[in-house]
Amino acid sequence: MTFAPSRSWRLLLPGLVLLTSACTQPPAESTAASLAEQRRRMPPDTTGYESRPPADPNGISRYYLGRQIAHVMGHEGADWLERNGRQEEEGTDILLRELKLKPTDVVADLGAGTGYFSFRISPLVPQGRVLAVDIQPEMITSLKQNKERRQITNVEPVLGTVQNPNLTARSVDLVLIVDAYHEFDHPREMMRAVRAALTPTGRLALVEYRAEDSRVPIKRIHKMSLEQARKEMAAVGLEFIENVETLPQQHLMFFRRAK
Fold first, then answer.
1. 3 contacts 139 by C-beta, under 8 angstroms
2. How many CB atoms lie within 10 A of CB 240?
3. First-to-last CA distance in the chain?
4. Rounded CA gap, 135 and 54, in Å?
5. Distances (CA, A) of 87 to 13, 81, 192, 216, 247
6. pTM (2 decimals)?
7. What is the 3-state secondary structure of 112-161?
8. Sheet containing 49-51: which strands, arranged edge to edge?
9. Strand partners of residue 74
10. Tens-place pLDDT, residues 10-64
């Protein structure tokens, strides 16, 4: 949610840290060369990652903290996000209510796709903003078209990358990720950036199909257990608050910055 730029963060079913430079003048040539050499020698943060053949063909050959990462869906499957019956299947109205949003909240919808949740959150935060984040330019185009068609002013499409949602530090009151996190190719990097984007009182709402319930008609690799989710969030400094079990098929897990 490695994601190729042509893929989406949304679930396919057969079912920040921002690196910026505030220097007022460039470093001397020798210094710049030295910094470049240091970066070249610096190993990537591979904590928790493992590469091995895919145990499940619906996933990739990359694992994080023991969990195989799932394949993702491209923009070609965008109609699935707006399918008839989604509200009843997933209890999306219940989900929105359980978020307990304030009118002034800034909300980031990661893996926004066509904006299914972004445009439903918009009227709940009339004095706030919705940052609709996706990594596919095609989805960003769709978001802009939907925004114009609906004449909504407080939804802002944001083009992210596979490692960075491009959110300003300490600026977001709620980050919502629906059925997408398990597909992130770089979950550690992405969630560290998410943590950095949260305000001191900000929350993460992580929604995933319940792996503990065999009756949920979703492929196992597209589900997550509460235990696994808590382990992965703790690894990046996100503290568990609660798991709300009012949705028909999914966990609704809330986290915050660990103190």
1. no
2. 18
3. 27
4. 24
5. 16, 11, 31, 16, 11
6. 0.81
7. CCCCCCHHHHHHHCCCCEEEEEECCHHHHHHHHHHHHHHCCCCEEEEECC
8. 49-51, 59-64, 67-70
9. 7
10. 333 333 333 333 333 333 344 445 545 544 555 566 799 999 999 999 999 999 9
Query: Locate tokens 């499940």: which residue?
Result: 56
Angle (CA) 84-57-249 rounded to 5° is: 35
Tokens 């989710």, residue located? 229
Tracing tokens 């009843």 back to the chain, one arrives at 88
Structure tokens at 210: 């319940």
Structure tokens at 220: 């196992």
Give CA–CA dist 184/190, Å, rounded: 8
User: What letter represents residue 243's amino acid?
Assistant: N
Token pair 């001191």 in the structure block, residue: 200
pLDDT digits (tens, 9 = 90+) for 2-18: 333 333 333 333 333 33
